[in-house]
Amino acid sequence: MTSKTKIRFAVALAAAGTLSATLLAPAAGARPADAVRPECPRGLACDWVPAAYRQTGDPADKESYGNYDTADRPRTNKIDYIVLHDTEVGFDSTLKLFQNPASKTSAHYVVRSSDGHVTQMVKTKDIAWQAGNWYVNTHSIGIEQEGYAAQGAQWYTPAMYRSTARLVAHLARVHDIPLDRQHILGHDGVPPTSAAGTGGMHWDPGPYWDWNRFMKLLRQEAKAARPAAARNSPLVTVTAGFDANRQAFRDCEKDTDLPVQGSSAVPLHTGPTEDAPLFADPGLHPGGVGTDCAADWGSKISATQQAVVADRAPGWTAIWWYGAKAWLRTPEGSHVLTPTRGTVVRPKPGRTDVPVYGVAYPAAADYPAGFTGGRTGAPLLYTIGAGQSFPGGGEAPTGYYHAPTIDSSQPYDHTYFTGPETYLTVQIGHRVGFVKASDVDVVRVG
């Protein structure tokens, strides 16, 4: 059975080789591309090119197929998140990958860099294989932006920002998705499903996606108010301006220094000095320190993300980050952080080390007797300690969608299982996570 996780596009393209006309042809019985109306807002240049939904080998092997799973969302399972990616290959190559079932990857939409044109490839009712987390896949819509994360400023054009904002505003309105960074995610905001999978998660669209610009456009399209400022609130929003926030990162995959340039990312340190080591995501650098790699999400917080103030020192502010204090420079008179009204989660009295999960699956006892295909969650490496608080508190859907075959030929195939446990979404660090509501209190601040 496929893992149904997004693979690195460049690797997938090399593995797939030259696509034949047979691979690019629609599945037997499929409607012509021009017979399907894309799910896009009026006025947005948008077309429909279907991703592959075909087997990849032995016709008797119904578990080997690509590139998505059929469903009936939101009737079967709620859509609660939108995930933004970058392609790491060109627009046309991305479409070909999604049309090749051997690629085992897809997204609902692809946005072209040059003019913001949008191509829908998977219906929103179905589940694209895009986020590297099956739970998030089943409850999200994935949007690919043409470009390369390490060269983002060259690819993320005004036309792309406008088109993506209009599309996301439309989808959020249709599916009642909150316009906050706990629900509008980069791929770098998606948690792993398990502690062991942390190092394999992706970091796109990267530090050169201008989140301030995008979220401003998104709220304009949605006619929504920006997060309300609140003097002295412990909850803060990162508001560092993209152009003024000039940073020097490295492309560690190519062992090259990237040009000093504007960025959404603000470095995080382990202490209130420039020479203090960079903060390390404990799942990415166990027992080590963070790096200045563009791909190192633990050592930086992004504009429009939120956090809770943990401590202060002259010219510095500490926030709670992956269960510990992380420090960022906040010189007097700077606008790096803005106190904000909102909700935070904190451990219930007497609770310490509240576990954080990468999924909100039912418990083993919630599945039918004799059914062995259900999944359950295990804690990640992060915990919320006594005295700590993290942004969030919105209820996450509790459920697992079981879809092992292409034709629903197994018992309980293409079934969504729910559970009675209530989970909440929290911004635990650069990535979101999920906590049991029974472990925490949700508190309004500001």
In short:
This protein is α+β, with helices and mostly antiparallel strands.
Write structural notes for this entry.
The protein is globular, with a radius of gyration of 21 Å. The N and C termini lie far apart (48 Å). The protein contains seven helices and 30 strands. Strand 6 and strand 7 (118-120) form a beta hairpin. It is α+β, with helices and mostly antiparallel strands and 446 residues long. It has helices at residues 9-16, 21-24, 91-98, 134-138, 152-155, 158-175, 211-222, and strands at 46-48, 54-55, 65-66, 68-69, 81-86, 109-111, 118-120, 127-128, 140-145, 184-186, 235-238, 246-247, 250-251, 256-257, 261-262, 265-267, 300-302, 306-313, 316-321, 324-329, 337-339, 342-347, 354-357, 379-384, 390-396, 399-402, 415-418, 423-427, 432-436, 440-445. The longest helix is centred in the middle third of the chain and has 18 residues, at 158-175. Mean pLDDT is 92; it is low at 1-34. Helix 6 packs across helix 7. A six-stranded mixed sheet has the order 1-7-6-9-5-10, with helices on both faces. A five-stranded antiparallel sheet has the order 20-19-18-11-21, with no helix packed on it.
CA(first)-CA(last) distance = 48 Å
**Major sheet attributes:** 6 strands, mixed
Helix content: 10-25%
Radius of gyration in whole Å, from Cα? 21 Å
Count of alpha/pi helices:
7
Write down the oligomeric state.
Answer: single chain
Q: Say how many strands there are.
A: 30
Structural class: alpha+beta
Ordered list of secondary-structure elements with their pairings:
Elements: H1 9-16, H2 21-24, E1 46-48, E2 54-55, E3 65-66, E4 68-69, E5 81-86, H3 91-98, E6 109-111, E7 118-120, E8 127-128, H4 134-138, E9 140-145, H5 152-155, H6 158-175, E10 184-186, H7 211-222, E11 235-238, E12 246-247, E13 250-251, E14 256-257, E15 261-262, E16 265-267, E17 300-302, E18 306-313, E19 316-321, E20 324-329, E21 337-339, E22 342-347, E23 354-357, E24 379-384, E25 390-396, E26 399-402, E27 415-418, E28 423-427, E29 432-436, E30 440-445
Parallel strand pairs: 1-7, 5-9, 5-10, 6-9
Antiparallel strand pairs: 2-3, 4-8, 6-7, 11-18, 11-21, 12-15, 13-14, 16-17, 18-19, 19-20, 22-25, 22-30, 23-24, 25-28, 26-27, 28-29
